[in-house]
Amino acid sequence: MQPFFCSPGMGHLVPFFELAKRFVTQLDFQVTIFVLSITDASTIRSHQFLHSASNLFNIVTLPPVDISGLVDTPFVGTKVAMMMHQSLPALRSAISAMTSSSTGSDLPPITALIVDVFGTEALAIAEEFRIPKYVFGISSAWFLATVLCAPTLDVKVFDEHANKKLPIKIPGCTALRFEDTLEVFQDPSSPARSRFLCTGKEASTADGILVNTWEDLEPKTLP
């Protein structure tokens, strides 16, 4: 049994859908995808997309969370990160129930928890239940390398990037230009920066990392 903890939005759900489909059809795994209960039009469409393949895997919608008094920023990434954070108790309860149900029954045990970069806090839950834990980088190896490298960068690097627009050097990758980076790099006061750095630290504790890319696309980044 393979649980996925997926951020809302088609950009995250489609890669998870494709990965889950391969696990089911090629590896004969049982997959459960945990998604957040959100009522905006885009998320409703993405949930409908997932449910269209409900014959392949189980879809579990976690209870809705209220972040209205917790986040005061237009940055979508911060809002998504907070929604994922607030959903952790529900995810923990669901995994606990799955673990209990599989004990002494014909149900397969949980073999691994797979999360995206917005769900890295859930890796601690997998650790608690002694479940192997993986991060799925849905975009590129370059971005994932940036996430993992960011916590190791000196504060001076961030300041020079924000104030002097100097590029950020990421090992094994083309340097990041100022105009190509996220708000967390461009704005030293961004409330999203601390969460972004924590994401990199948490992702580095995973037992493995899956990347949505291939060698011909990123020959300089992939070893």
TrEMBL record:
GO molecular function: coniferyl-alcohol glucosyltransferase activity
Domain of life: Eukaryota
Keyword Transferase set for record: yes
SUPFAM superfamilies: UDP-Glycosyltransferase/glycogen phosphorylase
Keywords of the record: Glycosyltransferase, Transferase
The keyword Glycosyltransferase appears for this protein: yes
PANTHER family: UDP-GLYCOSYLTRANSFERASE 72E1 (PTHR48046)
Name the record gives this protein: Uncharacterized protein
Organism: Dipteronia dyeriana
Phylogenetic placement of the source organism: Eukaryota, Viridiplantae, Streptophyta, Embryophyta, Tracheophyta
